[in-house]
Amino acid sequence: MSHKATNDSESALMTSLGLPRSAIYLDRERSQIAFNWRVLAQAEDKSIPLLERLKYLCIVGSNLDEFFEVRVASLLAQNTIDGQLAQHAAFTSMMERIDKECHALETRQYEVLNQDILPALSRKGIHLLRHTERTEAQRAWVKSYFDREVRPLLTPIGLDPAHPFPQVVNKSLNFIVSLAGKDAFGRGTAIAIVKAPRVLPRVIKIPDELTEKGQAFCLLSSVIHAHIGDLFNDREVLAYSQFRVTRDSDLWVDEDEVKNLRQALQGELQGRQFGMAVRLEVAKNCPESLSQFLLEQFSLSKDRLYAVDGPVNMVRLSELIDHVNQANLRFPAFSAKSDSKLAQKNIFDVLNKQDILLHHPFQPFQTVIDFIRTASLDPNVLAIKQTIYRTGMNSDLMESLITAARMGKEVTVVVELMARFDEEANINWADRLQRAGAQVVYGVVGLKTHAKLALVIRREEGGGLRHYAHLGTGNYHPSTTRFYTDFGLLTAHPKKAAEVNEVFIHLTGLTKPKKLEHLWLAPFFLQPKIIKAIRNEARIAREGRPGRIIAKMNALVDESVIRALYAASADGVKIDLIVRGACTLRPSVPGLSENITVRSIIGRFLEHSRIYYFRNDLQHDVYLASADWMSRNLFRRIEVAFPVLEKSLKKRIISEGLDPYLKDNQNAWVLDSDGSYERKKVRGKQKPFSAQQYLMQTLGSPESEDN
């Protein structure tokens, strides 16, 4: 069947069902919020250690921040005309739904904190004390701390024509104060703003000698609350509240006009802190007059106001986790199992015989770091090429690239400067790499370079050149590789490694990419290849043989892929999707998707690997990828999906990356056709099974709690 005919059949399926769009696709924003409810459920789970539950609460807070900074901000920007927010019914209804669900989520978040986790921590001897809960001795110490460490850094601003409302940094802690009487000049300045110093810790440990049992802490916001009156001599403080504003944090540069992307971004980074306001958080007891005043200052409607029962930035409670050293309140220590045989051999000799498949965090990312470091020091290595999306502020891998450049090797690094929230770190690395002599390029303007590729070109004993490559589903970030599940492949396969080099030539030379036999490259070939593979399974099913698709990813929202999956389901293909986050495919709809199941795994590690499996008449095609099935990944990014060709490695990916997740009845949530998720439970004679726990036991090296 031709491409056009198949595409027409997919459209005909949609038409024949007579379903409105809302019945075919789930709401993306609702799905994204639903993901955070699943994370919040981890914080509610009493079988999880207390500090880990608190960490999940902080993750929900961080996710909500990004949801407002990026997704809500984008929706608002798209519906703004001449600076005025468009008020058409569909948009207004959507925003009302988002606000309602986000308010409910944040309310429950603080209920879990105040009614469950903090009391439980207190019973374990970890006390987060408010002013009224502190002893006289503790209050005296806090007063001394305020006078010594905090007050000198505070600059209260009384509002008048000469002191207008100050610029408030994105997500920073601030206070609004209502004052009685007149100021020193006899004027009735009634409102003052106090910015909390960003250089001070948000969680402060009270000395052990002042605490009878366990450890005691207080928040910086509580310290300022208790002594805010000390800032206003001879003025009565009538009311006050902490507040925090969330702003649009997406960077924008005019890519048609900009001549130097790095310089343009450096300027934009400064402005990110003061983007359009999209949410205002205040204390629950903030007087309405003060909250209304703030809403007016930030040009926000009342729907954007969140009155919280606790610190306005719950994410900063992660500092409390760092202070506590009770191992029994954390997950048992775990470390990746190293391959001792691999460590004793030259990695290039190993790769000349076989590919190496790495499954992080169950196997160490150190192998990848060692691969680049060995290449940087090997006199036979002539060139190293690598893409960088996220790597962090400190990176042994980046230091190895700098070393290689200083040693005279040809080092080419494609640095993605637009990697959200990692822009500053990437700019700094780009600068250091260039000063070391590396060739640094910033990918393709308008398309984020999200592919995870590294290439080493080495002169072998016979005098010829050989290519060695690493391809991955995750980032070259040593920290996140300990908490994210990802796959990486080290290979010297002549064709695949040569095609990696072709991708680099495409990225640096901006040439039209060659037709690639093995790699699926976005935005040129990836989406058509995925659609073709799905349609091939549909053809096989129509011919009476088993069609089977299993795919694992972070998000599924691209409509062209969803339509192809629907059509394959209608043809009888059995489809299992493991989608951690947002999914707009509506499963289990008769005639549309009755052969499709969708599940989400939320556990100790962040599920991050992307795996595409197609049965293909027992050829068992397995692809690993950097790309989710989202329009931005398929059409607006440089992405690579790559095949795993060795049968033994295919089996490993299926047995480690897919099968356990389909069996999980501990951390799995199943998506229903109405967009709701239900947590899988042990039924009948089933035994409890957690995919991540299974992989930790079979692949990793669990350590004692003392380590």
Automatic annotation (TrEMBL):
User: Could you tell me which PANTHER family the record lists for this protein?
Assistant: POLYPHOSPHATE KINASE
> Where is the Polyphosphate kinase N-terminal domain positioned along the sequence?
25-128
The residues that the entry says bind Mg(2+) are R390, R420
The record places domain Polyphosphate kinase middle at: 138-320
Q: Which CDD domains match?
A: PLDc_PaPPK1_C2_like (cd09168)
**Top EC class for this record:** transferase
Q: Which InterPro entries match?
A: PP_kinase, PP_kinase_C_1, PP_kinase_middle, PP_kinase_middle_dom_sf, PPK_C_dom2, PPK_N_dom, PPK_N_dom_sf
Protein's name in the database = Polyphosphate kinase
Traced from the root, the source organism's taxonomic lineage reads: Bacteria, Pseudomonadati, Pseudomonadota, Betaproteobacteria, Burkholderiales
Q: Which domain of life is it from?
A: Bacteria
